[in-house]
Amino acid sequence: MTTVLSLGGSIVAPEGPDPAFLAAFRALVERHLAADPSRRLVLVVRGGGPARLWQKAFREAAGALLDRPEEAATAQDWIGVMATRLNAELVRALMGSLAPQPVVTDPTAVELFMGRVLVAAGWKPGWSTDYDAVLLAERFGAEEVVNLSNIEKVYTADPRKDPSARPLDTISWAEFRKLVGEEWTPGANAPFDPIASRRAAEIKLRVVCAAGRDLGNLEALLEGRPFVGTTIGPD
Known about the structure:
The protein has helices at residues 9-12, 19-34, 48-61, 69-95, 129-139, 173-180, 194-202, 215-222, and strands spanning 2-7, 40-45, 117-120, 144-149, 154-155, 167-168, 170-171, 206-211, 230-232. By secondary structure, the protein is of the alpha/beta class. It has one domain (2-232): Carbamate kinase. The strands form two sheets. Strands 3-2-1-4-8-9-7 form a seven-stranded mixed sheet. A two-stranded antiparallel sheet has the order 5-6. The longest helix is centred in the middle third of the chain and has 27 residues, at 69-95.
């Protein structure tokens, strides 16, 4: 049984790497895998806050480069991709012998799943790590992607802008896609990106959005117990 966990960069490294959290996360992974030898985890590591900081530094320092918007956007996208790879290499190293393969950077090219944990990072400009997670779920037969970020649930609107926004326990792909639209932009802060959502809906994949730093809640989710989060689809 394979489960895909998509880890927000702001969970792995809020400002810098968080050793205490990472050690506790590794212990959770070890317990989860030890309980059932058929379990495997794909960990897709995102850039999150660190990526946005580096992209912001580029914008502030770029000067005339910003007069070429297409080139500037591609540069920022690559910065985000590289942030995911640094975070992912840290996570893979901490998994030790559970994750013997190099970090996956092209989800369309990976053929084998060696060990118990496969760690992946960003691919290339124009493709989010959410989309990578969906492709890897499809490739390895996972029924669910657990999308871990700094929000507990999906809301009916952005609660920072709309005080009437309500948290949701469940939502269909059709309704979720109305919330997030159809286009993805680098650094966007949607709960799950629109392009990945379209593919997930097509293959009837289930996505759970939950708070990533609440490891007790994550363990409950992985073990099939009641948890706090939002389940998206299938329709």
